[in-house]
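Bench notes, afternoon.
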Amino acid sequence: MQGLTPLKPVNEGHAIKEAVISVFFAGPIFKPQRFQRLIEDGFKGKFQQFETINGFQFQLKGAPNPDTNLSPSINPDIGFKFTRFENGEPSLALQGLNDSERYYISVHALKYKRWTDFIGDFRSCFDEMKQHLANMFVVGFSLHYKDDFFWQSELDIPIADIFSQNSELLPKKFFSGSSRNLILTSEEKTNDRSFYDRLEINVGKNLNPNISISHNIVEALPAAEELSSLLRTNELTDMLNNAHINNKLVLKSVLTTEVQDLIHLK
């Protein structure tokens, strides 16, 4: 065993590069541009930048040379984005998007510290926006974590020292070689709820060897529920807390105890 000294998490104390909570709606967000007023009102001091999001579509017209007939069109004002900065770098983003048949608002922690801080930012953002989201119905939510590590050595990445060979989620083939990509998607059930669990692991052997773990939990509600009703109770927060616990269990399953200690996974 060559040791894990060259293994460095992307952040001091943990390996979380980004965490995202998304709330999906039954219908589109009405006039995203109108949320700009929050930058000088409820979000004053919380975010420093507001921008609208435009969509682009390309249509192929004619043959036999479709590349010469690309016709781009712009769909203006399909979403919005608020950004908070710390020391000149983005630390928190709030984004709303009418994306084809998906309509959602997501909160992105780009300088993740603790779950309690992240879920607190999520609740604070939605509590402030709820008056602008009247009559919006929630159909589901997701919690997505992206963990990154760097491998600072010319030696091959020791996959078997980083990932647990006893994990029920990792096939034996995953441990052969020094460069690997694994995607595992499953439907899980707990009590009377079901959710989709997607785990992706990339072990890259390139000029800057790295390891990335992407874990996304998506849960559809049994029936659409009014956002204001969900915010009045702890129902949505409880579901997100359960998703967070599930994320930790997945990481504990796939990582060795040495790596768990390295990123202070409890």
